Description:
The structure is a homodimer.
Chain A: H1 2-11, E1 16-21, H2 29-44, E2 48-53, H3 59-70, H4 76-83, H5 85-100, E3 104-108, H6 110-113, E4 116-117, E5 126-128, H7 131-138, E6 142-147, E7 150-152, E8 158-160, H8 165-177, E9 180-185, E10 206-208, H9 209-214, H10 216-219, H11 225-234, E11 238-242, E12 250-253, E13 266-270, E14 273-282, H12 287-297, E15 305-309, E16 325-333, H13 337-351, E17 355-359, E18 362-368, H14 378-388, E19 395-399, E20 402-408, H15 412-422
Parallel strand pairs in A: 1-2, 1-9, 2-6, 3-6, 9-11, 10-12
Antiparallel strand pairs in A: 4-5, 7-8, 11-12, 13-18, 14-16, 14-17, 15-16, 18-20, 19-20
Helix pairs in contact in A: 2-5, 8-11, 12-13
Amino acid sequence: xxxxxxxxxxxxSVSLIVQKFGGTSVGTVDRIRNAAARALATQxxxxxxxVIVSAMAGETNRLLALASELSPLxxxxxxxxxxxxxEQVSAALMALAIQxxxxxxxxxxGHQLGIITDSAYTKARIKAIDAQRLxxxxxxxxxxxxxxxxxxxxxxxxxxxxxxxSDTSAVAVAAAVGAACEIFTDVDGVYTTDPNICPTAKxxxxxxxxxxxxxxxxxxxxLQIRSVEVAMKYGVPVHVRSSFSEAPGTWVVGEEQSLERVxxxxxxxxxxxxRVMLVGVDDRPGIVAQAFTALSRENISVxxxxxxxxxxTTPAGPDGAVSRKTDxxxxxxxxxxxxxxxxxxxxxxxxxxxxxxxxxxxxxxSIVGLxxxxxxxxxxxxxxxxxxxxxxxxxxxxxxxxxxCLVATRYxxxxxxxLHDGFGLGTPA
Amino acid sequence: xxxxxxxxxxxxSVSLIVQKFGGTSVGTVDRIRNAAARALATQxxxxxxxVIVSAMAGETNRLLALASELSPLxxxxxxxxxxxxxEQVSAALMALAIQxxxxxxxxxxGHQLGIITDSAYTKARIKAIDAQRLxxxxxxxxxxxxxxxxxxxxxxxxxxxxxxxSDTSAVAVAAAVGAACEIFTDVDGVYTTDPNICPTAKxxxxxxxxxxxxxxxxxxxxLQIRSVEVAMKYGVPVHVRSSFSEAPGTWVVGEEQSLERVxxxxxxxxxxxxRVMLVGVDDRPGIVAQAFTALSRENISVxxxxxxxxxxTTPAGPDGAVSRKTDxxxxxxxxxxxxxxxxxxxxxxxxxxxxxxxxxxxxxxSIVGLxxxxxxxxxxxxxxxxxxxxxxxxxxxxxxxxxxCLVATRYxxxxxxxLHDGFGLGTPA
Lengths: 429, 429
């Protein structure tokens, strides 16, 4: 823990550490004891400690299943009142575990700590945290154990922050008190890619907030994306690490604190997307916008959007006018595809599409890295690496620090390995 | 339910009913649905409805077992934070069940309803309830679903009211808003005695608060004793009835509202007492008080106390002084007997007792009835009935509306049946 402490004090000026323990890290009484021991060791090393806990693994699902039994679409206010009990239980048990090991501890719920959110039940956003209350609790050597995931709105209704919201609670509390944040979970950090796919994957020592956000599909398994946004906004250094070992994990930090510029930091695979292609759409201003507005009204999120001139553009007619056509390709999650089809069938005539094609047998492979900004030719190298494996690219989209390709599902693992090792991310054999 | 409504309006002037559902009545999702249907039926009959819920059966024990795993003597504040989640879960689920059946409902926790208690964790007492908040919630046809058992102290810490505390929550809420209180449980009322012992036992239609308190050992199975004290203090009519039938249960009401004066209302059996006998104690002022003060310091509750001249009083000596001796008999719970023995061993010399005898093979049989006050000869009849069965009485104590006898354990059931049928409480054969 000493190594950790040093690193953390580099990021935060006060000797205060926020430690968040996820569902598996508090999944049994024994694991709660282990987590309590870590918090106490951190305190003995000279720090004030705030512990944030998730619900015991499986508990939130158990509670939500009860709600589903009663109603197919349960009232969000009551769902939050229900689900928030999971973290309350963990917080009380963690406080008891710390006390049983000779420490001082008190559990604090959203309404007790003044974690004020908006009233968007099940996906509330934190507006304020009573940092003074927290400092008061800590002043006499008490470890404050805060129930994650929950807050209250201005009227005192219980709200929750959405799945994985305890990460966001932890980062927000760390921001409020100017602390660094340790996220203890069941993996030991963020990897260059999924080790189950690519055995040469290795743990990333430091990664920037921006890269972490782009690596969502890798990162979401270890750190809730919204918590990264909050960390970036307030400059909270976040250390993602394993509950079950003392080894350092991955630091998620500001760009200026991340390591020397490697070109590519990680390779992400997203199996959850499906492709929609509007073929031969009229290329007039506003036409494409209409399609996406209709999707947005249905709360369907669109990820990649690619527009290209269509093969169906007709030659100039007798009046000299060219009927300009364009093809529009976009991706939605597989879960949204059926609803997307409904929307598109009603929009097909409006946008003048000749045809709409749907493809589910597709995955998205992405490379992410701050270094791309200063290294030319990264995209070309990506295409070469895929071509060398005879993998056809179905669509491409790029951002400043990310390049994504759609490829057929059967190439998913091959593409990841080719890119991962081709960009030199693997551990030396 | 119409019959119920009529009876309730006799007790309370406003058309507001508090309905409390115990652990077995909300023990499964199906039972929660049934309870919700009852609340909605009551609303449709023209009443405003407040529902108070206990934790789902077994949940409180599950939570407390987790705490015990972490600590043999867990911190009471954290135990309350932990245990109170059981009722929070029930309240949210009940609100969802009411909504699923087309009603309006909101769950309300202790801190949301302003159920302010003292800070005596695990056995807090209610100091105030925000009745206006409750009226506001009810105004638009919402059924307010209040988590029982819990409150908050002035500092916002979560407190609980002790085992069975949801009954007390219900009666206190009913008192605050001037309502009658229905307690739905897994038995259909208070019986003249335990039907498992005495097959002729019958349901009592109306019973006074005073009798209910004296019948603790019968009544505690259906209604928490402290809730009866609160009901008596505020004159809240309480209807104890089954969740699983429409039949009326037992009304617990003020003396003036109870039925015509029967001599004996019920027969109670308490298997939980043990007898301690101080033989030949110096009969000087203050001596006996010392023994009971010592027990009280150890938090040992004493039930019956009987003092009689001792056979060990010595005749007048040469100086004419009589060494007056007395025997003191008292009862403590079997659970407290070991600690009582420790205290008595250290007190034996102080009080000058010749001997201390302990007896665990003993039960207490009591008859209770307001009618005793005006009927002479009830005690004599009790002794006759026991004598007719050759049951020896080991000790007797009486209060205004109760007579208790200690008898050997082997006579327990026989004594109950003899008294129950001897006082004409049984259903006609």
